Amino acid sequence: MSKTDTPIQKQPRLVSIFAVPGVQLLDVAGPLDVFAEANRQCTGRKPIYRFRLVSRSAGPLTCSSGARLLPDATIEDRREKVDTLLVAGSPHAGETHLDAATMAWLTASARTARRYGSVCSGAFLLAQTGGLDGCRVTTHWSVAGALQAAFPKLRVEADSIYVRDGRVCTAAGVTAGMDLALALVEEDLGREVAMNVARELVMFFKRPGGQMPFSRRGQVELSGRSALQESQRWIAAHLRADLSVAALASRAGVSPRHFARMFRGELGVTPADYVESVRVDAACRLLEEGTDAPKQVADRCGFTNVNGLRRAFMRCTGITPAEYRRRYRGESSVG
């Protein structure tokens, strides 16, 4: 194992993770293990990072898995300045309302921290303080829409693994907290140390693609007025049909310009981008569950040819159809 020399700091940087009852264990343990490994990879006389798990009150914190964590401090303990503040998520974070004392602690800690953010659905908790307003953020793909609806001042990037916007750093679901922590280690200690941490923890140094390969866009509920919902049903059921704006507008009984404006205004995407995402989602299901050759997948999903499928797949997922099938089917190639 290689170690890297790093300048000696007077005091280790304090990484505080705030957690609520029902916290997802890996939202806490994943980032901490990345920072801890960074300590091991450096040969300074003192650790680069030290850690503190903070909760609303004293006593064991029961995780969503049933495991229990013992916090190091409560929100009443304000003796030390936080360098990096992360708010961990939980399966019920979207329904959790913070009390005034917790809000005040998070606000004050974020204001004085060098950087702050969240892991997974922890964004719902941090957003309640207003500390994410106007910022680019991400969260788990399954609740990204709900986060945007609940906090319209946020700019939610649903496909990102992690997002850095100034002092604000947010990660997508669960293991993405480790990707974010690794990026912060690289920022602090350089590429070599971060690469050594990734090798030791057997993780990607830079994970390819975004969250879309893990989501199922076809399961998203229909949106917009009834005419648009009918268009969405038609698109999903007729992937090989002419799904141009002109054709869809004709079916809806409006002009192409009006249809495009109405579609984007209510769904937040252009008709062309929506059609492409539905076709790619259908291709994902075929690649996961079927044995069709790429040419057949492209034809069944309405793509002109295999190259069209590949280009759309790369735009939506960041990886090729071949790589997608390898990940989800364990196959060596798709052709």
What do these coordinates show?
The chain is an alpha/beta fold and 335 residues long. It is built from 13 helices and eleven strands. It has helices spanning 25-41, 100-112, 122-127, 144-150, 176-189, 191-200, 226-237, 245-252, 256-267, 271-289, 294-300, 306-317, 321-329, and strands at 13-18, 49-55, 61-62, 68-69, 73-74, 84-87, 115-119, 136-137, 155-156, 162-165, 168-171. The chain has a seven-stranded mixed beta sheet with strand order 5-2-1-6-7-11-10. A two-stranded antiparallel ribbon has the order 3-4. Strand 3 and strand 4 (68-69) form a beta hairpin. It is globular.
Topology:
Layout: E1 13-18, H1 25-41, E2 49-55, E3 61-62, E4 68-69, E5 73-74, E6 84-87, H2 100-112, E7 115-119, H3 122-127, E8 136-137, H4 144-150, E9 155-156, E10 162-165, E11 168-171, H5 176-189, H6 191-200, H7 226-237, H8 245-252, H9 256-267, H10 271-289, H11 294-300, H12 306-317, H13 321-329
Parallel strand pairs: 1-2, 1-6, 2-5, 6-7, 7-11, 8-9
Antiparallel strand pairs: 3-4, 10-11
Helix pairs in contact: 1-5, 1-6, 5-6, 8-9, 10-12, 10-13
Share in helix = 40-55%
Poorly predicted runs are 216-220, 331-335
Overall geometry? globular
CATH architecture label of the largest domain:
3-Layer(aba) Sandwich
- What is the domain total for the residues? 2
CATH topology of the largest domain: the name is Rossmann fold
Write the H/E string, N to C.
EHEEEEEHEHEHEEEHHHHHHHHH
Q: What name goes with the CATH superfamily of the largest domain?
A: Class I glutamine amidotransferase (GATase) domain
Number of strands: 11
Cα end-to-end separation: 38 Å
Question: What portion of residues belong to β-strands?
Answer: 5-15%
Tally of individual helices: 13
